[in-house]
Amino acid sequence: MLRVMRTLLCLCLVFISALSLSAFADIYRYVDKNGVWHFTNVPTQGRYRLFIKTGRNRSVGYVNRYIKTYESIIAGASNRFGVESSLIKAVIKAESDFDHYAVSRYGAQGLMQLMPQTADDMEVKDPFNPAENIFGGTRYLKMMLTRFNNNLALALSAYNAGPENVEKYHDVPPFPETRAFIKRVLRYYRIYKAGK
């Protein structure tokens, strides 16, 4: 048994080393009822748990390239839902760093990090499809802006922590993650707006 565990550990290290040479990707795993370990960098089921968190060293050039790639989609979503393109970019940057395969530890997916239920509600069939994700995320963001009378801090709180939590606290919820999210989005929003 010890020999099998050592072999598995060696295989994991080789797998992780190979990934680190080619790209940064978080590794998720779960152990099934037979004790078999399963690994992925794109968890599609709730039973996967974060195993190894890798850093993302994305240059400004990297992000600018993706902004250009998604520029027409962002502009289309902005026009359709009446949300500033600078705000859409800021949410994408804060949520996924323009990684359309991003998956959070909570299961949020894609560029604008849509939870599966939100994606369903926004009629997003494939959350990893950039156009579907951006249109669905922008539609949801617009709903939150409308619901909270265009109060940006409250709308972003609702986007991150759910509108029920904003209504429960009658303000930005006291969650460190939500408060940090708002600060990040607003910082990027100012940068993208100034860059117009």
The end-to-end span amounts to 61 Å
Q: Which percent range fits the helix content? A: 55-70%
The CATH architecture category of the largest domain equals Orthogonal Bundle
Low-confidence stretches: 7-11, 16-24, 55-59
Average pLDDT: 82
* Tally of separate helices: 8
N-to-C order of helices and strands: HEEEHHHHHHH
User: How much of the sequence is in beta strands?
Assistant: 5-15%
Shape descriptor reads globular
What profile does the largest beta sheet have? Answer: 3 strands, antiparallel
Structural class: mainly alpha
What is the CATH topology of the largest domain? Answer: Lysozyme
Keywords for this entry:
single chain; 196 residues; Lysozyme; 2 domains; 8 helices; 3 strands; globular
List the helices and strands and how they pair.
Blueprint lengths: L1 H21 L4 E5 L5 E4 L8 E4 L7 H22 L3 H12 L19 H6 L8 H18 L4 H10 L1 H7 L6 H19 L2
Antiparallel strand pairs: 1-2, 1-3
Describe the 3D structure:
The protein is 59% helix and 7% strand. It is built from eight helices and three strands. It has a three-stranded antiparallel sheet, with no helix packed on it. The longest helix has 22 residues, at 60-81. The protein is globular and about 55 Å long.
Q: What is the structure about, briefly put?
A:
With 196 residues, the protein is mainly alpha-helical. It has helices spanning 2-22, 60-81, 85-96, 116-121, 130-147, 152-161, 163-169, 176-194; strands spanning 27-31, 37-40, 49-52. It has eight helices and three strands; from the N terminus they run αβββααααααα.
